[in-house]
Amino acid sequence: MIQPDWTIFVAALVFLLTLLSLNYLLFKPLFRVLDERQAKTAGLRSKAFQLRESYEASEEEYQASLKLERQHGYKVAEEARKEALQERARRLAKARQEADDTKALTRKDLEQEIESSKEFLKKEAEQLSRLITAQVLRRQA
Description:
Number of helices: 1
Order of helices and strands: H
Helix content: over 70%
Largest sheet: none
Structural class: mainly alpha
Oligomer: single chain
Number of strands: 0
Shape: rod-shaped
Distance between the termini: 193 Å
Strand content: under 5%
């Protein structure tokens, strides 16, 4: 059997002194550094999470404003298209009216020219018939 002697107390004292010195010199600073590291890591994670949430909110806001601007752009383009179609219709109607007016004037001018040509030909025919009549009567006489 083992007989305890006075060296056991010395070993226990050395063990306690070693434990206290290790605790004071190694474990407490190590745990303090680990706690600080954990706090910084948790803080950085928290900050990263907040930044991510902020980014996502900004992105959603951007997407919403982009959607609104697209809708506004589509409305503006649609209004411009409608105005262009109205302008086209107005110009087309004006061109048709001008063409109809020109056509009517041309028809009127042609009718007048036809009438004057008919009168001219009628007079020419009368003169030719008189001339022919005079020529025929002279030969017979």
